[in-house]
């Protein structure tokens, strides 16, 4: 068994693995996709002490740093269940989708989060046929075309700014009466000639011609009127959902699905810690996820030296 078994290979999981391995204890990381959300990110300018980097570059550096240590990196492995120890000090089991299972004296959960979907007619049908969630991955596919970005938070406004440089025209659609993004992003957005912003608008349907997106409909929330925009692409940027479905019933989660942790990263199960976007820790950012991952690993080490194995 591992002394520390990390589930999730984003910034939180990578930091946890490095901190654990540096204690000289047997450490493993199982991740569906090593690098996590960082792989889908382009410019990163708030990773402290690094003025500017890019997601794939940072993800590669994360993996390299982990591999500097004796850590078992098990990439492309999806955890499907967490089995708490039969009694305190016992092994914790993590079941994998491939039928295997891994065991740890402690476990650190760092499975991150993913983008929320709109759940309107046409969205699922036209996913990857015009409906996209990752502007950095799919933006170039819409070169010279018209797109909408759904959501006026930081990610939506960032996406609109990004896409405006690639596509012919961007319509940003926000449900609320005003955008929620940082003022500096909003200023940038409003300075761009090929972006329209529509507020108080609820997207109601994605229209397609059977093979690709041709438009969307939204309800003007002030007048109640239904309006239609012709376009080729829709980028959905309306929030994050924690990747914790597999933990339901096994561990305490909030109604939103976030893993409840205390200031040390301890969850409701002794020996199980958690870190990053999957948890209740506020503000989902790389630097925060890394700090939380480091903290969870130190807490796990602290737990190990105080617990008699059974
Ligand atoms: P994640 O990065 O989500 O990693 C989760 C890991 O868990 C992945 O390896 C995933 O494959 C794995 N996993 C999930 N479920 C399972 C499972 N069941 N079994 C096994 N493994 C699983 N933050 C910034 O600080 N600055 C930015 O500029 C910035 N820009 C961003 C831009 C985009 C487009 C996105 C998507 C995010 C951005 N963020 C940014 C946020 C930042 O990427 C996240 O806060 C950070 O990656 C969270 O790290 P994490 O380790 O908690 O989770």
UniProtKB/TrEMBL annotation:
Domain FAD/NAD(P)-binding per the UniProt entry, residue ranges: 2-293
Assembly: Homodimer.
Gene Ontology MF terms: oxidoreductase activity
Keyword entries, A-Z: Disulfide bond, FAD, Flavoprotein, NAD, Oxidoreductase, Redox-active center
Species of the source: Azospirillum picis
Required co-factors: FAD
Family membership noted in the UniProt record: Belongs to the class-II pyridine nucleotide-disulfide oxidoreductase family.
Source organism superkingdom: Bacteria
Signal peptide: none
Protein name: Thioredoxin reductase
């Amino acid at each position: 068994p591992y002394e520390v078994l990390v589930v999730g290979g984003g910034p939180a999981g990578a930091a946890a693995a490095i901190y654990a391995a540096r204690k000289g204890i047997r450490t493993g990381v199982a991740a569906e996709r090593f690098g996590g959300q960082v792989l889908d990110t382009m410019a990163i300018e708030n990773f402290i002490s690094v003025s500017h980097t890019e997601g794939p570059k940072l993800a590669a550096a994360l993996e390299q740093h982990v591999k500097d240590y004796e850590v078992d990196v098990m990439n492309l492995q999806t955890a499907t269940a967490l089995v708490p120890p039969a009694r305190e000090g016992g092994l914790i089991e993590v079941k994998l989708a491939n039928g295997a299972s891994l065991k740890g004296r402690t476990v650190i959960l760092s499975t991150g989060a993913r983008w929320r979907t709109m759940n309107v007619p046409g969205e699922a049908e036209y996913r990857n046929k015009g409906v996209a969630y990752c502007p950095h991955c799919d933006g170039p596919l819409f070169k010279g075309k018209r797109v909408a970005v759904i959501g006026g938070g930081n990610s939506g406004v960032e996406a609109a700014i990004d896409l405006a440089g690639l596509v012919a025209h961007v319509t940003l659609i926000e449900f609320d009466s005003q955008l929620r993004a940082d003022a500096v992003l909003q200023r940038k957005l409003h300075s761009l000639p090929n972006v329209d912003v529509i507020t108080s608008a609820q997207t109601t349907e994605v229209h397609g011609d059977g093979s690709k997106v041709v438009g969307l409909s939204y309800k003007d929330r002030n007048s109640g009127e239904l309006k239609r925009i012709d376009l080729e692409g829709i980028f959905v940027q309306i929030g994050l959902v924690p990747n914790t479905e597999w933990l339901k019933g096994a561990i305490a989660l909030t109604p939103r699905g976030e893993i409840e942790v205390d200031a040390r990263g301890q969850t409701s199960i002794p020996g199980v810690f958690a870190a990053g976007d999957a948890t209740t820790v506020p503000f989902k950012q790389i630097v925060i996820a890394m700090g939380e991952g480091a903290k969870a690993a130190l807490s796990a080490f602290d737990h190990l030296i105080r617990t008699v194995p059974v």
